[in-house]
Amino acid sequence: MSHEIETYKGQAAAIYARQDAWHRLGTTVRDRAFTAEEAMTLGHLGGWDVRKVPLTANEVTEDGVSSIPAPGFATVRTNPFTAAAEALGVVGAGYTPLQNEEHAEFLNTLAEESGAVFETAGSLRGGRQVFLTMRLPGSIMVGGTDRIDLNIAALNSHDGSSAFRLLLTPVRVVCANTQAAALRDNVAHVSIRHTRNAKAAVQQAREALGLTFAYVEEFEREAEALVNTTTTEAQFQAIIGQVFGATDRDASKRAKNAERDRQATLSALWHDANTQEGIRSTAWAAYQVVTEYVDHHAPVRDKADAATARATRLLTSEGPTRIKQTAWRAAAALV
User: Fold this and answer.
1) What is the pTM (predicted TM-score) of this model?
2) What average pLDDT does the structure give for the chain?
3) Is 82 exposed, middle or buried (0-12, 13-18, 19+ CB in 10 A)?
4) To pair with 239 at 20 to 30 A between CA atoms, which of 99, 114, 160, 214?
């Protein structure tokens, strides 16, 4: 399936708590939050036993098939639905798997210390990537009206495609936009490479996350400045131009139509969207228009389940973050 949530005979390797979460992946546990241990069982994330297996190459000749040792290793897991061994990716000798149980155990400790509760967990791309998210207690009120909640997302890969990452992601409650501000002096994520020291580094990341909480104060301060900055139609259009650029005169008809549709959607959000009430015609609103467009309106291939496809793109690619950071910088330049 194009949304890439791992499924097997109607079962999905994903779970979230109480109500539809910001990324809308998986099945809801309606009556309560879930624990890290339940993420392993109800979310089908436990018992994978991700391991490294030496690679071999098979050569077929007239004399038969011969196996030849090859450089590197395959990462292999035990499929949670079938119990069959399956390859996930190719990695080097220094790569050390970080099990889902270790991933969850770290977040469980963080939950105990911070008061955070589990919101989502799941497997993407056939087990190659895994996510767990937690909602932190408390929220930010921008301009006295725009509520921002805070989540910690922990993302891991088992195919060597990325490090173990912890991200602090503010979420605008009114329309569930995940922010990606470009703040100059604070860090909003921690990355840990898959090496022999990865397990120790995950524990050390708790201290590093303390740096990211400074990001919350900076985010709130800069957001207040944006919401207090009146922005004209011309300034908004200039921000859109900086974020998305202009289509070449010689571009295809399809590209020109896509630009026209994007511009129409952005303008409608700016002028008429209910989500802009209380913040309309401000630099904060201009930034929120871009985040709302990326999270809820940008074209995706999976037309049947566009919301989930956009959420998966947000979790697994850098493009949406780059767009939002460009929008933040452009809006902040007006302050």
Assistant:
1) 0.84
2) 87
3) exposed
4) 214
